[in-house]
Amino acid sequence: MARGRRSRGRRATRDQFRSIAGGLGGFGDCMSSEWSIRPGCEVSLSLSDSSISLRGEVISHDPSTRFIVLRVPSSSGDKNRWDIHVVNLGNVEQFSVLRAAREELLEEILPLDEEKLQSRCQQSFEKKKRSLLSFKKGVSPKGQKLFQTISKTIEEVTWAGKTIVVMNRVSILPPYGTGNIRGVTQEFKEDDAALSHIRKIVEKHVRDQEGCEEI
Q1: pLDDT computed for residue 33 by the predictor
Q2: Residue 175, preceding peptide bond in cis (omega within 30° of 0)
Q3: Rounded-to-integer distance, Cα 47 and Cα 85, Å
Q4: What's the predicted TM-score (pTM) here?
Q5: Among 11, 64, 132, 134, which is disulfide-ready with 147 (CB 3.0 to 4.6 Å)?
Q6: Helices in the chain by DSSP H: which ranges?
Q7: Phi, psi at residue 62, to the nearest 5°?
Q8: Angle between helices 193-214 and 141-151 (to 10 degrees)
Q9: Does domain 41-99 have CATH number 2.30.30?
Q10: Which sequence spans correspond to the domains of the chain?
Q11: CA angle, residues 93, 20, 17, in degrees to nearest 5
Q12: Backbone phi, then psi, for 121, in 5-degree steps?
């Protein structure tokens, strides 16, 4: 079995990899060599200082950071699923290219939409930022959980002391129940659409929390 595996792909130690990369001016320059790593090729590798070995298909490779993304058969045994591994090539002890990428596959790979990636990154950042804002010193866990629930669907959620303020129109006072919802101003009407919407969110949140406590 060992001979058959070597015949399908050449094997190099980590030091050999570094030597090749240095001679070519960086790991990214190996793209034009026999050590090329291209989406669609099949590789096997072992991580240094670890018993982990992987064999799978490369679905992405970033020469500048020396990271590759591998798709390997699911550890669950489900043939319709895959496990995804992000590997730092700096931690690779042994590496083999078992099968080169098919040219027709390379033609199908489309360039990344950088604007869309930037947009998703910004959205993720804002979501994380709102999550961090939910933690307020001196506020009960009940209030923090309600803040998190509301901020999942409404961006304009802030603290005014221990009071949750939504869209500068609705305030929710401790202990943060449905009976603690108020309009921010005296002119605020009880049938206001914003108040009604927030009340429904709070009611559902309270029911969900009560259900968790019963379990």
Answers
A1: 33
A2: yes
A3: 12
A4: 0.46
A5: 134
A6: 2-8, 14-23, 103-108, 114-133, 141-151, 193-214
A7: -115, 100
A8: 130
A9: yes
A10: 41-99, 132-211
A11: 5
A12: -65, -45
For residue 119, how many other CB atoms are within 10 A of its CB? 11
Q: What CA–CA distance (Å, rounded) separates 171 from 53?
A: 55
pLDDT in tens, 98-107: 988 776 555 5
> 3-class DSSP state for residue 11?
strand
**DSSP-derived pairing of the beta strands 67-73 and 82-88:** antiparallel
Dihedral sign computed on CA atoms, order 115, 116, 120, 126: positive
Q: How far is 16 from 118, CA to CA, in rounded Å?
A: 37
Average pLDDT, the chain: 77
The two structure tokens encoding residue 164: 């949750």
The 10 Å CB-count burial string (b at 16+, else e) for 134-149 is: beeeebeeebbebbbb
- Residue 179: CB atoms within 10 A of its CB come to 9
- Write down the pLDDT at residue 10: 43
